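note to self — DONT lose this again. spent like an hour looking for the file last time. sequence + predicted structure for the chain T wanted, 284 res
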Amino acid sequence: MLKRQWWKSLRVVGFIAAAGLAWNSQANAAESDVITFTTAPTQSLAQTKKIYGPLVEYLAKSTGKNIQLVAARNFLEYTSKMRKGEYDIIFDGPHFVNWRMEHINHQPIARLPGKLVFAAIVKDGGVINNVKQLIGKKVCAVNSPNLATLMILDSFPNPVRQPVIVSARSFKDAFKCLKSGKGQAAFLPLGFWKKFKKKGKTGGLRVLYTTKKNPLPTRTFSISKRLDAATIGAIQRALLNTEGQEGAQPLLKRFRRKNFVDAPSSEFKGLSRLLLSVWGFHEL
């Protein structure tokens, strides 16, 4: 049974397989036998526990390793610890995966199936007919290092000639921001746009630009090569086999997928460039 401990600072959240997945406030990554697992903090600590806990428990049981789930409170904590190499297994976007491949000796081992495509959305009847016309214009978007925002901004290589981001807390908020007139465009995943279109919520809006010519890999598991090859192989096999799908059901349901697929390193080549404008990622 999960046991919540509030006697330490709530800096991180951990599951310890050997203790029946105890709910810890801080994982001891310094212990040589501990393998730390984390993910981008795009949900609350409680949601992270619910979505990823069963998968971490399955990985621990199937490999016989002491794997802990460690949840960051925010992106500042997450990226700081990532850059220091404090996490062993990470599940997040392909731009982060490539950065870790290049700087802290990680390798991709599995990912969600499919590809990611993003879009710039504008109102019908406006004067903006080309994505370059968004230079200097207010655009509703989730702040970087959100991948949708970074991927669209990749079309504007000159940092002084880019759209002005109107910060949104989520894609849904970015959509509302555009409809309310606070921005002249919104940056969204194309899948999000299509979902809203099916619901009849996109009236008066249109797609200005997409990244279909440069689709990206979906969220991916990468693992530190500080772990031995046998352990890396065991964790990868556990993710890719059918039994692993059962332990990952909350995660797969969250992303509307049925399984994980292999993640060749070649898929991620060059994607770390998307992080060059993000503090802390232009250098080690």
